[in-house]
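Input/output pair, single chain:
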Amino acid sequence: MKDPITQDLVAAALKTAPTATVSVVTYDPSKLLSHVAVAVTILVGLAQFFTVVVNNWGAWIGWWAARWVDARRILAWARRRD
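Output:
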């Protein structure tokens, strides 16, 4: 994987996967603690993801800028077709 964005996403997923797996396997909708565990797992996953994003902020800004250019190009194409 040479794309830094893909590397960031894989790193965040690998950090969060063990916690998420335990949370999903032990989930019991009748217990409040189970709901709390799922909520905390989501928060931990988001924190891991945004930590990786902040560490590689320049690459992410460039990636979003490229996606924005693509979106503007598609919108301009859609407007011309009307």
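The chain has one domain: 4-81. The helical segments are 4-25, 32-55, 57-81.
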